[in-house]
Amino acid sequence: MSVSLSPLDYPLPAQPTAFVISGNRVLLNSEQPGPRPYTLSVYQGLIHRIIPGHFSVQTIEPHLPRLTAELPAGLIHDGQLGFWDIGDLWLMPGVIDAHVHVNQPGRTLWEGMTTASQAAAAGGCTTIVDMPLNAIPPTTTVDHAQTKVESVGDSCWVDVALWGGMVPGNDGDLLPLRDFGVRGFKGFLIDSGVPEFPMVESRDVLKALQVLEVGISIANLHATTLEKPPADPRQYTAFLESRPAAMEVDAIHAVISWLEAHPAVRGHIVHLSAAEALPLIKAAKARGVNLTIETCFHYLALSAQTIPAGATQYKCCPPIRDELNRDALWAALEEGLIDLVVSDHSPSTPDLKCPETGDFLAAWGGIASVQFGLSVLWTEAKRRGYECPRILLPWLCERPAQHIQLDQRKGRLQPGMDADMVIWDPEESFVVTPVGIHFRHKVTPYLGHTLYGRVHHTLVRGRVAFSTGLATESEPRLLIMRNRPSGTDDTPAYFSATPPGRIILEA
Ligand SMILES: [Zn+2]
User: Fold this and answer.
1) DSSP 8-class letter at 198
2) Is the pTM of this model over 0.85?
3) Given this model, what pLDDT does residue 214 score?
4) What CATH number should be reported for the domain holding residue 165?
5) Closest of 379, 368, 469 to residue 431, by C-alpha
6) Domain match, 12 and 107 both
7) What is the distance in A from the centroid of ligand 1 to the CA of 457?
8) How many A from CA of 393 to the centre of ligand 1?
């Protein structure tokens, strides 16, 4: 066989529709005991074949018939097949961040899709799921969802899916939204912080659960209840005391009782912070309550004792709690009580973080971190003695894919699945600096932190969304190329290969 390959240092902007990628340290899924040499072929955005072994451009040829079986013959004879040897870099499924506030349209001064999705790509995320609030209008009706689709246009650097919103009086909008394609619904059991997304009370949730029982959707509930009066506002403890763990426990208790009355609906607790709720969760799961739990990178990586006075970049709701709490969350994650980890990327304009006064009670409660989840979690896992990033796959890839009902396409590397991949070096460290941050405002508690796990390349459905090989500080647009399958026109398209009635946005 005469073969003409195009060796690639990285897939170039004019990317081939088919390429072969080979590496020494590949993690296909979490069942695999550790990194193994594998070679994968990718065709039109999907993983085509996977074979064991790491090959160079000199040694790959005998294996090409297996890797390209059933593909057009011209691919390997006309130089259309790219070959990419990543050597000792690690290859694993792309991260799915199931909780991101993008804020477009309406509050793009806080964050927009371009910057949020570029940051996601730079951090090894291949899919983000946008929360229904903080954008204006919120995603509480099909019209509002359509407004978002039109506003976002072609600015998605990674795959983007949507959550719908559950607010008082929109129970009639839930099924149409589900049919439109939202991955589930989020309601707040506390003031959301923005007036256009009012909190729901027990009767609203019960009404919604009755509607949702006819289909499989998710009541994605923000589990905190009422606030207590303020104390000295520059001290982090003042804010922490205003949001005691009992508030989360009470809210989760209520959620569990609603779910027990509506077993066809899966309930998902967003951003669990209080370890005090874990026994309740454990008992509910043991009883078979249809419940999943997420926590956030910051609750696992940071603790209240180390937050300086006035450092409002650490403020989020619910709050970062103490060191013992953090250890308990880790134990719950390891035990599987907590299912997945998300960023809850929730930026605002810098002034809303009250940097002048350092007032924790007045500052916007949200942490910007969509770019750093993989590295933050790996850095902390490493500190806790983990030697192989395999531990991250269920938390960041597999269970998030199940959570958003895209596990038939995403979350694992196997033939037929989307070629969503992150190529990174878990041993390489870097310092978080403003110039390296791609989200809109460079306000984050991780600024100045040294993190392990540098992302080298991110591929979304076989297309490069981020590549350090192209990086120059003066041309940030060149860092990240649009995630556009070849041959598509300029209009935003629905990702039609998802289950009937569900979409994710694609640019
Ligand atoms: Zn959130």
Assistant:
1) P
2) yes
3) 66
4) 3.20.20.140
5) 379
6) no
7) 27
8) 22
